[in-house]
Amino acid sequence: MQWEEAILETWQVHNRSMLFLIENLPDIAFETTLSKRGGRTIAAQLAHCIDVRFYRMESYVKKNQIDFAPFEKGYVPGKMELLKAFEDSGKIMDILIQDSLNSDGKAPHFARGIVVMIGYYISHEAHHRGHALLTAKTQGISLPDSLKWGVWEWNKL
To answer: The whole model's pTM is what?
Structure first.
């Protein structure tokens, strides 16, 4: 495998881990939060991840006339909307990564290039993925072992 393919695959496995989380979280979990002051629910945190994806890809999306937009401010999407948003934006990111790798690794809004950009997304979204699992667990929502461990099974995702 070439390093360019490995970079793309790293992104794709990460995106599948986010989809796996969403698919396997019990529906009730999406409404929970650890905040006692009205902070983000799990659904709102995942919507925030989509909004950040859009913010960082906005110029690329517009330049290439790709249909992708963030959620409306304050809107909290449901499970199916989140799945679609992660699937669609993951595919857009695939294209952006391929284009970037064909352009000496340059990436929009990331002076250090595509590898650093992918690292940023993975770090940011892994933070929220972990927070979602912790929130559900802390709120007494039973999570299947397949979910708790499955997000780490990168050789299987």
So the answer is: 0.94
